User: Fold this.
Amino acid sequence: MIRVALIGFGGIAQLHRYAYWYHNRAGMPVQLVAASDPNPAAFEGMTKINLDMPGDIVDELPFAKYSDWRQMIAEQKPDLVDICVPTLLHEEITIEALKAGCDVLCEKPMATAYEPAKRMADAAAESGRSLMIGQCVRFYPQYIYLREAVADGRYGKVAGASFTRVSPLPMWGGANWRRENIRNGSSIMDLNIHDIDVMQYIFGMPTALSCRLESRTTPYDYSLSRFNYGDYTVEIDSAWLDEKAVFNMSYAVEFEKGTLRFDGEAVTFTADGVTQDIAMSGAGGITTEIEYFVDILANNKENAENPPEQTVNTMYLLEKCFESGENGGIILETAEQ
Ligand SMILES: NC(=O)c1ccc[n+]([C@@H]2O[C@H](COP(=O)([O-])OP(=O)(O)OC[C@H]3O[C@@H](n4cnc5c(N)ncnc54)[C@H](O)[C@@H]3O)[C@@H](O)[C@H]2O)c1
Assistant:
């Protein structure tokens, strides 16, 4: 049995908690045994965030509750530590947990910048433990379908792509951590990163990029990035909007034979004026990502779909976006790290 300890019991942790319960009930060898959060209120109810919350958790096995994650790791000696705290804390906790001999699942963004992300990947390699970053969009069926379509060429070559992600400005979360620090929670760090990561996963590394950053209501709450792939360009935009906005993620990818679209609900392919629906099945990204990581740990498999070296590349691209955006959108060349 893989014994899991969650660090941070706020918004996104509720989806992780649900996934452990769901997979345990389905017979996977995984169980949540402890959680830590310095805020006692975190254990009293479910923080509502911008994503659909999980269904009811029934017959959950009891788990120990801590205010101090170091004490929790020392006492519980978990096999897997799952980190759901503000991004600023990801590096420190990941490295200590790896050194304590635990495998680690850490929420995205991997870290606040490229250098700490690299240190985290290096620490994982040195420790011999497994580290995976919660870049959950890689595990949504709509993006898996796109990746397969690009890889097997069923619609011909790619001619261009755009990805969009909008969300109401986050009002949840202790101490407004997202709104106070651009490396913790600006739209480019918190939203755009999902699409930069999935772009890199699907299309590989671009050769150049440029980025526009705007502060409309809060610092860098809007970002628009363009990535050069030689024959085509990928455009990614994301925004924190007002509280009336509804979270949505979408894409449109032009292929030689037509356009594949995901509008947040349905995936369609349009060619010669005819649009056909493409059926999707599967659970949400976080439930599937946790199933994937547990399977890797339980069965000693290679992490082919989401290794930390790839998420270090995502952080490198993000760092370049900051550099471009803070210098008037200049074009910067990029290279694999
Ligand atoms: N994969 C996704 O789609 C997704 C969505 C939302 C958030 N996230 C990521 O998850 C992380 C957390 O975001 P959130 O929205 O859940 O934030 P949140 O503020 O709702 O929850 C964070 C929790 O961490 C706790 N915390 C703070 N310091 C701690 C410490 N030292 N030890 C233990 N707990 C501590 C806080 O008290 C809070 O309960 C961020 O990195 C964020 O980018 C990912």
Notes: The CA atoms of residues 137 and 285 lie 6 Å apart. The chain has a mean pLDDT of 93. Residues 138-286+315-333 form a domain with the Dihydrodipicolinate Reductase; domain 2 fold (CATH 3.30.360.10).
